[in-house]
């Protein structure tokens, strides 16, 4: 991907982008209370008096949330800080009953790490992670239920979040999108966040500034709470262009918090003055510093699953896949597992040693299409991995042609049947018998004497047309190589 | 360190404490006095001394990840002036 340049009147500009992702930790209960952290319950039914900010209630840290955050840090190849400190971030808002959010500030749990972007051209690009810290979520405000009042649901209040802050290493909307998808993929592999942006379990704040290439950083604006990958990309595009216009019209960019309006396709400043950045952080006197031992971290490190980057490298190494194909297959662990089962022949199925590149092609170009059309996840694919593997075998050993295989696959998608059964039942075996093919060739030539004469006169391009006719006449079952050979023989000279 | 009237006004706003204009000056003086008194601590050499976070020698207690609380919206909303359909209801907050 080339650098993204915004063409202004004064020349070219580039954008500098950093993302702050709030990822909801997968846990049964909240960060500092025993209320359930599950999404979607009736209002205020999953609230302890701690979450509601009642006087005198004391927070007690959920050890599993700490483990999840450490696991995430390790997955981001980041430094785990053995001592970290919870602080109070003070601000006044109706869905924050205590008047402060327990967060981490000066001493976060996780330090610097890296996320590797897999670019569309197959290259990779590392993006720095500055930190990851653990904090509580706020409650939910509903502004549109009543003309005069705002309704508050505290079910989300106190749910554990990981705030993952990138370095300002991103330069284009596309890179920001790739970064978000990659981060989501890593979190899902780790099982620490489900990455569901629609339900709000992954939310994103976007920091954007622009500059002339080579310049130091200019003032940035922060776009709060963008809730889909697509909107993040759009918001960056609009905000970067707005800033370029501002500079070129002789104005300036002020450091402020903005909102993205996806209907109008613009960002605009948030009005609420309460959000003036004066959070008066200080260590929470209710909580001692969090101290972990190196052994504790080692135990978690030993249980990490194979992550997308390692899996991608292995797929390229062991199966000879291209970086692009490998990258696509590892985005979701379930897809990667499906591919591997199909490529290897599964346990006790098939002969193994299949052409893994063929299998990858079938998964990426055909299976994905089927799943998209049916709106199914790969785990509920009507075509099982074993059956797809068998289909590839049927092509490899010459039983069916690649063209017929597409038809067989379609039937598999509808019926879930074994490809060998379908081929046998429908008589789709490839015709390799030269006599039968020769008869079909003779028929086609006899039916089209003019065209045959043209080929003999040197119009070789017409040969392809004859091949097509013969294939049609045999219901696609003839071996195309054999057809070509016989045609050439009959029509030459 | 001495506080100005404007700083006191800003702090009062953040703390949601109403201070009338004529009260700003006296309060600035009062808080400045307190700050000044506390500044004596700066005379102590604390080079290389870890900040004290607790008076008791203990580590941060933690709990297992189990759901053992919540499920009682009536208790949570008991003190709320006008709850609606299980929600707290507050004067409209814009944005």
CATH topology name of the domain at 5-43 in chain B: Histone, subunit A
Tally of separate helices of chain A: 15
- CA gyration radius of chain B, whole angstroms: 22 Å
In helices, the fraction of residues of chain B equals: 25-40%
Which CATH C-level class of the domain at 5-43 in chain B is it? Mainly Alpha
Largest interface: A-B, 55 and 35 residues
What's the main sheet of chain A like? 9 strands, mixed
Oligomer: heterodimer
Q: Which ranges of chain B are low-confidence, i.e. pLDDT below 50, for 5 or more consecutive residues?
A: none
CATH architecture of the domain at 5-43 in chain B: Orthogonal Bundle
Helix content of chain A: 25-40%
Strand content of chain A: 15-25%
For the record, give the distance between the C-alpha atoms at the N and C termini of chain B, rounded to a whole number.
Answer: 37 Å
Structural class of chain A: alpha+beta
Distance between the termini of chain A: 51 Å
Backbone shape of chain B? flat
* Unreliable parts of chain A: 346-351
Structure write-up:
- The complex is a heterodimer of chains A (about 500) and B (about 100).
- By secondary structure, chain A is an alpha+beta fold.
- Chain A has helices at about 65-75, 175-190, 230-250, 295-300, 310-320, 325-330, 335-345, 355-375, 385-395, 400-415, 420-425, 435-445, 450-455, 465-475, 480-490; strands at about 5-10, 10-25, 60, 85, 85-90, 100-105, 115-120, 125-135, 140, 150-155, 160-165, 200-210, 220-225, 255-260, 265-270, 280-285, 290.
- In chain A, strands 1, 2, 7, 8, 11, 12, 13, 14 and 15 form a 9-stranded mixed sheet that branches. A 3-stranded antiparallel sheet of chain A has the order 6-5-16, with no helix packed on it. A two-stranded antiparallel sheet of chain A has the order 4-17.
- In chain A, strand 13 (about 220-225), helix 3 and strand 14 form a beta-alpha-beta unit.
- In chain A, helix 5 (about 310-320) packs across helix 6, helix 7 crosses helix 9 and helix 12 (about 435-445) crosses helix 14.
- The model of chain A is unreliable at about 345-350 (pLDDT under 50).
- With about 100 residues, chain B is mainly alpha-helical.
- The model of chain B has no long low-confidence stretch (mean pLDDT about 90).
- Chain B contains 3 helices and 2 strands; from the N terminus they run H-H-E-H-E.
- Chain B has a domain at about 5-45: Histone, subunit A (Orthogonal Bundle), CATH 1.10.20.
- The chains are: A alpha+beta (about 500), B mainly alpha (about 100).
């Amino acid at each position: 991907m080339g650098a993204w340049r915004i063409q202004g009147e004064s020349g070219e500009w580039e954008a500098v982008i950093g993302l702050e992702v709030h990822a909801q930790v997968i846990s049964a209960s909240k960060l500092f209370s025993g209320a359930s952290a599950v999404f979607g319950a009736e209002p205020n039914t999953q609230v302890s008096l701690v979450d509601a900010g009642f006087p005198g209630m004391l927070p007690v840290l959920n050890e599993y949330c700490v483990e999840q955050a450490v696991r995430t840090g390790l997955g981001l190849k980041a430094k785990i800080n053995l001592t970290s400190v919870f602080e109070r971030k003070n601000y006044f808002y109706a869905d924050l009953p205590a008047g402060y959010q327990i967060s981490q500030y000066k001493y976060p749990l996780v330090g610097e790490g890296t996320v590797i972007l897999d670019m569309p051209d197959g290259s990779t690009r590392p993006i720095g992670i500055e930190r990851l810290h653990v904090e509580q979520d706020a409650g939910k405000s509903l502004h549109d239920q009543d003309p005069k009042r705002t309704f508050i649901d505290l079910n989300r209040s106190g749910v554990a979040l990981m705030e993952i802050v990138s370095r300002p290493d991103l330069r284009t909307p596309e890179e920001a999108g790739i970064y978000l998808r990659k981060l989501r993929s890593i979190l899902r592999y780790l099982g620490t966040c489900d990455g569901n942006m629609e339900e709000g379990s992954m939310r994103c704040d976007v920091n954007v500034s622009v500059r002339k290439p080579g310049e130091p950083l200019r003032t940035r604006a922060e776009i709060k709470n963008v809730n889909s990958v697509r909107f993040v990309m759009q918001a960056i595009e609009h905000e970067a262009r707005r800033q370029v216009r501002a500079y070129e019209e002789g104005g300036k960019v002020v450091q402020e918090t903005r909102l993205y309006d996806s209907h109008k396709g613009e960002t605009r400043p948030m009005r609420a003055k309460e959000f003036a950045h004066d959070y008066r952080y200080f260590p929470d006197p209710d909580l001692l510093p969090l101290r972990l031992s190196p052994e504790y971290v080692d135990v978690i490190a030993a249980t990490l699953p194979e992550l997308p980057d390692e899996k991608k490298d292995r797929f390229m190494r062991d199966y000879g896949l291209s970086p692009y194909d490998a990258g696509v297959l590892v985005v979701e662990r379930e897809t990667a597992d499906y591919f591997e089962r199909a490529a290897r022949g599964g346990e006790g199925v098939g002969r193994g040693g299949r052409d893994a590149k063929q299998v990858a092609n079938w998964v990426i170009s055909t299976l994905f299409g089927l799943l998209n059309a049916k709106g199914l996840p790969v785990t509920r694919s009507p075509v099982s991995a074993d059956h797809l593997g068998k289909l590839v075998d049927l092509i490899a050993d010459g039983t069916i042609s690649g063209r017929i295989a597409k038809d067989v696959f379609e039937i598999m998608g509808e019926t879930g049947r074994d490809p060998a059964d379908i081929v046998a039942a429908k008589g789709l075996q490839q015709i390799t018998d030269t006599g039968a093919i020769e008869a079909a060739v003779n028929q086609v030539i006899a039916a089209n004497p003019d065209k045959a004469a043209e080929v003999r006169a040197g119009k070789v391009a017409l040969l392809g047309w004859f091949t097509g006719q013969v294939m049609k006449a045999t219901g696609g079952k003839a071996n195309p190589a054999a057809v070509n050979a016989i045609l050439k023989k009959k029509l030459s000279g | 360190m001495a506080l100005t009237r404007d700083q006191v006004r800003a702090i009062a706003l953040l703390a949601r404490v109403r201070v009338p204009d004529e009260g700003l000056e006296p309060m600035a003086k009062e808080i400045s006095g307190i700050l000044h008194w506390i500044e004596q601590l700066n005379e102590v050499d604390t080079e290389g001394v870890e900040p004290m976070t607790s008076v008791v020698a203990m580590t941060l207690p933690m709990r297992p990840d189990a759901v053992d609380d919540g499920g009682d919206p009536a208790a949570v909303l008991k003190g709320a002036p006008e709850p609606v359909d299980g929600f707290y209801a507050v004067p409209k907050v814009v944005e």
